[in-house]
Amino acid sequence: MKILISNTSDIPLYQQIKDQIKDAIFQGELVEGDLLPPIRGFSNDLKVSVLTIRRAYDELEQEGFVISQVGVGTFVSAQNLELLRESKRRLVEQKMQDMIHTAKMLNISKEELSAMMEILYEEV
Question: d(Cα 77, Cα 29) in Å, to the nearest integer?
């Protein structure tokens, strides 16, 4: 798992880390049962505070994406697969809302937008 953070971004470091871990889960790069990097080593690798990693992991756990076992590590959660599916749907819905908003601003009809979506979906 490759995490890239930016010190110049308006997004807090812990949020950048959390979002990229969630993306890795969404994309199947991390699957249920996978062990996340130990906090201390991860903080050294990313050159951030241990507290930054701890906050990212804590929030991921609160959202049901990971589970921490004291003395063992933090693992991608197997208990909340429906949450993962719903999160994926929400992500797609948000992007589709942006797309629809842009299409309406540009006076693109629903039919034309659907045709464009059909073509693009088949290409990928």
Answer: 14
**C-alpha distances in angstroms, 95 versus 60, 99, 102?**
22, 6, 11
Structure pTM? 0.70
Q: Is 65 exposed, middle or buried (0-12, 13-18, 19+ CB in 10 A)?
A: buried
pLDDT, tens digit, for every residue of 57-76? 999 999 889 999 999 999 99
Phi, psi of 33 (to 5 degrees): 95, -15
pLDDT in tens, 83-93: 777 877 888 99
C-alpha torsion 60→62→63→68, nearest 10:
50
Residues forming a β-bridge with 116: none
How many angstroms separate the CA atoms of 1 and 83, rounded?
22
